[in-house]
């Protein structure tokens, strides 16, 4: 779309070059959804064309002009769509594109998906004449219809009334759940093709998203069925089939076809990915993951915390926001992994690294949310912030409950392979007694502060150090700090 045409109608530019634009707190006119207010986005297919009022926008609740500058508000976006070629399977696909098209709007930041959406509108956008969320909705509809011509009619209902957002969110959650249930029961070995998604390469150019029946997209918004539907209806779009090729490692989930795709999609940055591993050749993570996993070398186990968790700190001393900075960026970061919530339900969940028997800690609200995915024998062995707030209390807890990592785990996966585990009771006990640290032990970085903390710096340092499992150990302490660093030189300690 030409800029001139966009400016004629809207007081803001519409251009893919604004993808990735961030609106910082200091430059924010208002925030919608995010960590502090409920929010969601939902696309609903309507088979009766008369029930979709094309290009119509309804707003329920206060508009931009009635909002207080600097304020945070609830936000729901519902789109009704009709098209002869559209089927129910495409709802999730169209919904995921809301992120892409809204990112074309200058001065408007859209992050995440489903019930995690986080929107900020900049002060400049308002100064330039943005007065109403209806303008945003109209621009979004226009982009959808010009980019996806199979959408014949589209209507938007935006909601900022908090009670109404909460009410509609409950309904949306049921729809998300029904979509998620569809892929259970289908496995990687049942299909010939996986699907790539390059939608987030505008933010993370080396990101390689591979969606398989056993590994839902890390953003949680695209299942294997959704990706297949997207590839069929929009072959020029971000989703395309990846022929599986030969299976090199059934436990790790390594396929020649995926490795070839990794080279092509990452521009040669990566040449292999194990779909079901945490520590070795892990799947890359862009910035949209629903859950972040982190390796805890002192106990040789893995912890998990999700976006939107009410838990402020993990046993490694980092909140979600800081861990997210280490996970993201389209990198393979050893020691960190981003996943979609549904991956917890996969029978291949990080099976290369021991699956649930390697999980030592979860934020309590996450553990509660996925409790029906946790094997019964592991339920009481996984600590939350109620049992363990630091490494010391985590060690004590794991020893008390005789967690598999204490003695070392014998790995069994899919009944096809048994591999010796890791860690020994002696190592853990020695470490607990303070006599000798486990070989793999490395103090994790301790960082606190807000979003202004230079995440790129942390990522660069971690990447240069080869991830959490390498030496020499690095400890970074940034407390309530705003730091600007021109150059960092890292040299190995002899
Ligand atoms: S996280 Fe991956 S699957 Fe989800 S939209 Fe981004 S690239 Fe696609």
How would you concisely characterize the structure shown here?
By secondary structure, the protein is an alpha/beta fold. The protein folds into 2 domains: 3-179, 2-Layer Sandwich (Bifunctional carbon monoxide dehydrogenase/acetyl-coa synthase(codh/acs), Chain M, domain 3), CATH 3.30.1650.10; 188-478, Bifunctional carbon monoxide dehydrogenase/acetyl-coa synthase(codh/acs), Chain M, domain 5 (3-Layer(aba) Sandwich). The chain has helices at 3-9, 91-102, 123-127, 133-147, 162-181, 224-233, 256-265, 320-327, 364-369, 376-379, 391-400, 404-407, 425-433, 455-464; strands at 28-33, 39-45, 57-60, 71-73, 75-82, 108-111, 118-122, 153-159, 193-197, 209-211, 239-243, 247-249, 254-255, 291-296, 301-306, 336-339, 359-362, 411-413, 417-419, 446-447, 477-478.
**Largest beta-sheet characterization:** 4 strands, mixed
Distance between the termini: 57 Å
- What overall geometry do the principal axes of the alpha carbons give? globular
Overall mean pLDDT score? 85
- Corresponding CATH superfamily of the largest domain: Bifunctional carbon monoxide dehydrogenase/acetyl-coa synthase(codh/acs), Chain M, domain 5
Q: What is the overall number of helices?
A: 14
What is the strand content? 15-25%
Quickly give the structural class.
alpha/beta
Number of domains: 2
| Annotated CATH architecture of the largest domain | 3-Layer(aba) Sandwich
Strand order of the largest sheet: 4-1-7-6
Molecular structure report:
It contains 14 helices and 21 strands. It starts with a helix and ends in a 16-residue tail after the last strand. It folds into 2 domains: 3-179, 2-Layer Sandwich (Bifunctional carbon monoxide dehydrogenase/acetyl-coa synthase(codh/acs), Chain M, domain 3); 188-478, Bifunctional carbon monoxide dehydrogenase/acetyl-coa synthase(codh/acs), Chain M, domain 5 (3-Layer(aba) Sandwich). The strands form 7 sheets. A 4-stranded mixed sheet has the order 4-1-7-6. Strands 2-5-8-3 form a 4-stranded mixed sheet, sandwiched between helices. A 4-stranded mixed sheet has the order 16-14-15-17. The protein has helices spanning 3-9, 91-102, 123-127, 133-147, 162-181, 224-233, 256-265, 320-327, 364-369, 376-379, 391-400, 404-407, 425-433, 455-464, and strands at 28-33, 39-45, 57-60, 71-73, 75-82, 108-111, 118-122, 153-159, 193-197, 209-211, 239-243, 247-249, 254-255, 291-296, 301-306, 336-339, 359-362, 411-413, 417-419, 446-447, 477-478. Helix 2 packs across helix 4 and helix 8 packs across helix 14 (455-464). It is α/β, with parallel strands linked by helices. 26% of the residues lie in helices and 19% in strands. Strand 6 and strand 7 form a beta hairpin. The longest helix has 20 residues, at 162-181. Residues 1-7, 416-432 and 434-475 have low confidence and may be disordered. Bound molecules: iron/sulfur cluster (SF4). Iron/sulfur cluster is lined by residues 96, 197, 199-200, 209, 211, 217-219, 221-222, 286, 288. Residues 96, 197, 199-200, 209, 211, 217-219, 221-222, 286, 288 line the site of iron/sulfur cluster.
